[in-house]
Amino acid sequence: MSVRIGExxxxxxLYEKDFGIYLGEEGEEKGxxxxxxxxxxxxxxxxxxxxxxxxxxxxxxxxxxxxxxITLGGIAVLEVKDVAKMGAFLDWGMxxxxxxxxxxQTTKVNAGDKVPVTMYIDKSCRLCxxxxxxxxxxxDSPYRAGDEVTGICYGINKNIGAFIAVDSMYFGMIPNQxxxxxxxxxxxxTFFVSERRNDGKLNLSESKKAYMQMDTDAEKIMKxxxxxxxxxxxDESVSPETIKREFGISKAAFKRAVGKLLKExxxxxxxxxxxxx
Length: 277
What we know:
By secondary structure, the protein is mostly beta strands. The protein has helices at 208-227, 240-247, 251-263; strands at 8-17, 20-24, 32-35, 48-55, 61-64, 75-83, 87-91, 98-101, 114-121, 127-130, 148-157, 161-166, 170-175, 188-196, 202-205, 231-232, 267-270, 273-276.
């Protein structure tokens, strides 16, 4: 049988029992049970049904017409129902909870938490969850600078920023210098794309105004450097008063603009000076 576990399958009704019908491919003698309470009214032998296939509590393949909250390789935010020594159990809309092994957790989870996960098949051919969703994200989004997007926070690094799964499928990140609020793993947020990087990944901003202002502030700094012979006689540690006097912006805005220019390799910081490249 070429049935795909963790996915939807188009299967034919092979025969019927009091407790349900058995589904499979043409010519098969055995099949996969679809319990009687889930059999659509009027279903008869030879009909083709679209069903989701997984393993029940006895580790047997079983079909269902219920819609799971996640399918194989997909990404979804699921609630933790219970935590055990070997891992956690997640509610994914099925009668048997989805197992999240301890080794697949990127942070400690507790009952009631909502965590972003992907679903995979382990070595024992069981469906399991993993919080390591980075490898499942793509870098071919249709978004460009200025677009509004929605994404799920799946990781936070205090030295880098917050990692976001845009549309639950694309790479996104909000850098530290663009973060003004607090983020929680598993929560969904709305952002603006501040930059589509050369590798296709998206840099995000909390507001459209913030990243547009960052571009303006960066150009102010470059213009001032031209006026000072290609460098500024101070770096990011300069006082807020000096920044306000020279550029008319806050120190936070100054640091964001300098960070942008450093990333674009338009400037370097050398011995307390900002130097134009």
